[in-house]
Amino acid sequence: MDGFPEGTPSVADLLLARAEDQGAAVLAGDDRWTWSEVVAASAARAGLLRSLLGPDSMTGPESQVGPDPIAAPDRPHIGVLLGNEPEYLFWLGAAALAGAVVVGINPTRRGEALAGDIRRTDCQILVTDTAGAALLDGLATAVAADRVLLIDHRDYAAQVAAHDGVPAADIKASAGPVPADLFLLLFTSGTTGDPKAVRCTQGRLTSIALRSAEAYGFDRADVAYCTMPLFHGNALMVLWGPSLVVGATVALAPRFSASGFLPDVRRYGATTFTYVGKALAYVLATEATEDDQSCSLRRGFGTEASVADHAAFEARFGCVLTEGYGSSEGGAAISRRPDTPSGSLGIPVEDIAVVDPVSAQECPPAEFDVAGALVNGEVAIGEIVNRSGTGRFEGYYNDPEATTQRIRNGWYWTGDLAYRDATGNFWFAGRGGDWMRVDSENLTAGPIERVLVRFADIAAVAVYPVPDPRSGDQVMAAIELLPDRTFDPELFARFLADQDDLGTKWAPAFLRVTRALPQTASGKVTKGPLRQDGWWRGGDPVYRASASDRPGSLGYEVLGASDVDTLLVEFDRHGRTGLVTR
User: Fold this and answer.
1) CB-based contacts of 249, cutoff 8 Å, min separation 6
2) Per-residue pLDDT in tens (0 to 9) along the chain, 582 residues
3) What is the CATH number of the domain that holds 240?
4) What is the full DSSP assignment across 173-220?
5) Alpha carbons 489 and 260: distance in angstroms, whole number
6) Are residues 480 and 418 in the same domain?
């Protein structure tokens, strides 16, 4: 069936199977919806979509399995710019029934970057709220004003109500969605500095959901607490999808809150959740209570937590956490097993290797000294590559060049770096190219550099990742000052606060101030030496971001020797010392 195993359901099929289900489906605050109500709400929004775009918009094919992009949409593309609202789930259901495509818009983007995301994905409808509309004010999104739906506007409820009672089965029968139909466009970031929209068909989503439901033990009694943003593949593929498969309950948090995590778990009786990166650390920083061990959490699934946080979370809450390596693209996955060494990604099942990106030859195993330090990193570290094919990668939307870059030689190249030990276990070693992962978000240097270079005293700027003590990366910038200029940290902090298009995670955590950035013979700045120096060596003054007296803004203070020692202790505690060897 269009590249999927016979019998693979579409997301629409899974929804229709819940049309008469009176079990709890969605919890949000004091509000509750059954699965039957969710399916009905989805059908009503599909009816609204049809009225806005015309019935013919629901019948054109946009089906594809494989990494060859389609030039233009034949089905409606619905941009959703919302937090974790029930409306987000209703529009996912509407798109599934109508054979439409949900484009998850990242609300941390700003200015032209945000508008460009919407234009490049050919959105014909935008679903947002008043706060989202404020972000779009004055931007050229190419979406007509009458097709921007504000869920908190007084007219919206009436627009939806006009389509109440539309049978979901009729919507599906009219639209005819199949597993090969494009369903999601999930934004990620690559080495070019521009976000890329990862294609995900209905069949790919259901295939992942079915496997995840079985692998992670989902059952109907589960309450899956969703703090990860719904524009992120983590929330959709390994939480919402499996919940739909078994008829479990999804409990929504508008956004992740460390202080709200445990009260919500207790309020909803949450049994499972997903996470990425430092979320565990933020929860662990809250005050422990006597009843932590008796909380309802039984398990969690995520990526990139530090070794120390993983162990501490399991010990404090008595639940089991499962880590895995993967991406929204779906080209390669590595899972941990019970005997996987602490901190390792695990041993892949497919023919996934650590490959030299230049020679395309497999890198030799890592070697270590008596203290456990990696001694042959220059040859052992390479890119994680799926040599068995492209996995479940279905291509980037309207970006054939980026798609081709991912599937060179018929292999899937992840862009991530690793090394493998003598037992075959993979160990994450960073991210290749010019991109970084900060607080669960993939960022690229180019857009940040274009903002920072506006600072009046800067001659040139280079942005690059440095490792975070717990998980992922932090943003570091090296700035070359104009002649006879001195660096004023207070002035720089005020400058950042005034940049409306500076993404919420773009401000440098570390700032190196230098009189001359390293450059090639042709005069181009080269970042290799800067990445190698990090924040712990290099000789130039380094400033570290700190909280400011003004809410929402940062200050910058000189990073002293004692600060470096404190940071190195943190790296050691979380099993990441090898990333900052001095």
Assistant:
1) 23, 24, 25, 26, 27, 222, 223, 224, 243, 268
2) 457 888 899 999 999 999 999 999 999 999 999 999 999 999 999 999 999 988 666 555 555 555 554 444 678 999 999 999 999 999 999 999 999 999 999 988 889 989 999 999 999 999 999 999 999 999 999 999 999 999 999 999 999 999 999 999 999 999 999 999 999 999 975 333 467 899 999 999 999 999 999 989 999 999 999 999 999 888 999 999 999 999 999 999 998 998 999 999 999 999 999 998 778 888 988 899 988 999 999 999 988 788 888 899 999 999 999 988 888 888 998 988 888 888 889 999 889 999 998 899 999 999 887 766 677 877 888 899 999 998 889 999 999 999 998 999 899 999 888 889 999 999 887 777 666 888 877 677 877 887 898 898 888 889 999 999 999 999 999 998 887 789 999 999 999 998 888 888 889 999 999 988 887 544 568 788 898 899 988 889 999 998 655 545 689 999 999 999 999 999 999 989 888 866
3) 3.40.50.980
4) HHH---TTBEEEEEEEE-TTSSEEEEEEEHHHHHHHHHHHHHHTT--T
5) 34
6) no
Which domain-ending residue is among 379, 409, 431?
A: 431
Per the structure, the complete domain to which residue 449 belongs is given by: 435-580
Residues 10 and 182 sit within 8 Å (Cβ to Cβ): no
Q: In what order do the strands lie in the sheet with 554-558?
A: 458-467, 473-481, 510-514, 542-547, 554-558
> Residue holding tokens 């003598």?
422
Of 255, 276, 308, which residue is a domain's last?
255
Any domain includes 565: yes
Distance CA 407, CA 67 (A): 8
Beta-bridge partner residues of 246 = none
Number of domain units in the chain: 3
Shared domain for 38 and 114, answered yes or no, is: yes
Q: Strand 382-386 vs strand 77-80: parallel, antiparallel, or unpaired? A: unpaired
Q: Are residues 419 and 452 in the same domain?
A: no
pTM of this structure: 0.81
